[in-house]
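In this supplementary section we document a worked example of the pipeline. Step one takes a protein sequence of length 314 as its only input; no multiple sequence alignment statistics are reported here. Step two produces a three-dimensional model, which step three serialises into structure tokens for compact storage. The input and output of this example are shown verbatim.
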Amino acid sequence: MKYRKLGSSDLLVSEIALGSWLTYGVGVDRERATACVRRAFELGINFIDTANVYGRGAAESFLGEALAGRPRDSYILATKVFFPMSDTDMGLSRAQILKQIDASLKRLCVDYVDLYQCHRYDPNTPLEETMRALSDVVHQGKARYIGFSEWSPQQITNAFALSGVERFVSSQPQYSLLWRGPEEKVIPQCREMGVSQIVWSPLAQGVLTGKYLPGSPPPVGSRASSDIMGHFIQGSMQSEFLEAVQMLQPLAKKANCTLAQFSLAWVLREPNVAAAIVGASRPEQLEENVGASGLSIDPALFAKAEAIIAEAKA
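The serialised model returned by step three reads:
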């Protein structure tokens, strides 16, 4: 496993991070989920990402149990705040941030998180109120650093323009061969500001592993076949995308790796990406994904893959 510095922080995070969206505490049974966390550490993963809204606290509660007994300095823990936790608890107001960080810490059974992230931007709360509340969370020792997810370039600029507040060190965008939105503005901007990307859905929720075949039902036990986990994957299951992904298989073979490893290595080719967050319902998925860390692949193969996907989207 290779490790990268997270923005301007002093955190060294594993290039492959373990996420918990739709999986732990929700879509994957406890025994398998625990096995995945255990295997992640054995493989050198030190970065665990979650959010209060995942299962309305269920993912954090599961991780609190799964991480119990491990030295606190042996892993880097990130969670998020914004989405509704009840009919009245939502957003990035000062009251919500201070309430939700305490609730997250309680569920996670820790005194602090390494990274506390705004899960989205809150247009209903003044930005300065949000940033000062996040700064207080850091000053109180409840989080070491702060980050954001899916903020616009202007929102990022406005946050850095404020004086006397903590600076973001991470951005969590969706980014993959199928979704390259952050490349145009967010990644260059963050590079200048000392902010790293920690990417969600780098495998397009499994589509870029090649396991979903055009015209065929999803494999039994896969995310797309799950009533709980399958809803969010539908946008990537269009036949033209699935056909294009199958055309990537020979490129991965030429690179002497699996398609999942090829797709993760493509994300990690970007120096501003500190980590690619993967979900896993089985330990062997992590074993394959970790093989992408440190891979050296001919850029010409990546260029061919980009062209194939671009044509499918045309």
